[in-house]
UniProtKB/TrEMBL annotation:
Claim: NADP is one of the keywords in the record: no
Species this protein is from: Oryza brachyantha
InterPro entries for this protein: Chorismate_II_sf (IPR036263), Chorismate_mutase_AroQ_euk (IPR008238), CM_AroQ_sf_eucaryotic (IPR037039), CM_II_prokaryot (IPR002701)
Entry GO CC: cytoplasm
Gene: LOC102721295
Keyword Isomerase: yes
Protein name, per record: Chorismate mutase
Classification of source organism: Eukaryota, Viridiplantae, Streptophyta, Embryophyta, Tracheophyta
Enzyme Commission code(s) on record: 5.4.99.5
Keywords for this protein: Amino-acid biosynthesis, Aromatic amino acid biosynthesis, Isomerase, Signal
GO biological process, one term: aromatic amino acid family biosynthetic process
Pfam families: CM_2 (PF01817)
GO MF terms held by the record: chorismate mutase activity
Amino acid sequence: LSLDTVRDFLTREEDAIVFSLIERARYPANAPAYGPAAAGDLGRLHGASFAEMFVRESEAVQAKAGRYQSLQEIPFFPFRVPFTLAPPYNFTAELHAAAASVNVNGAIWSTYFSQLLPLLAKNGDDGNYAATVASDLVCLQALSRRINYGRYVAEVKFIGDQQNYTTLIRKKDKDALMKLLTSEAQEDVVKRRVQKKAMVFGQNVTLDGPVETGNSNSSQTSFKVDPSLVYKLYDKWVIPLTKQVEVEYLLHRLD
Ligand SMILES: O=C(O)C(=O)C[C@]1(C(=O)O)C=C[C@@H](O)C=C1
């Protein structure tokens, strides 16, 4: 692990996140899939919404298939993952054991449903609930993988500057840790790049004419997901939550 390789991982995850948002934006809000019994009995199982039930059941299958054997993946409902049917694989232990399970999936879950989704999905109900929540699952998994990868970023930073980090960890000085791990220049690069990816990936591609660049004056290009929304997603949630993971990881790095 190096700062370059972990940043490469985060860069590649941007593609997964932007594509997953584009897919979710195909469907309208479809509120009955999320609400508490909004449409009678729809999907209500043990008091959960249809979306929650879908994520739980999907994670249970993926857990059996071994998805969470990799530390890069953390389920939203860990109590449903008791065993695996996968052939064993010895994933390299790149993280400090005591800090490896640090994650902010709870915050990702609530932010996704209460803040991001209302901005992403247009009003309406087309009844395609299963396809809709399947696309939510892909968004949630991509966001979770990216944000909780902050553990790996923090490990690299710790190894690269052990003395300073150790002092601050011993003092449990969260603010100073946050300051030490922050690179505003890098954050700016990331935010502008994801906005650009939303422009590039979210165009309609046709065989006639040049590829639309999004800056022609004559026709207002419409993107499949608003590039400024993707910028905002990173600015307000993805990067701050990643940094929260980094700080939490570091606080347990000497346990
Ligand atoms: O690339 C880093 O150095 C990170 O720590 C990741 C990240 C990000 O979330 O993109 C978070 C904090 C830094 O200020 C810059 C970027």
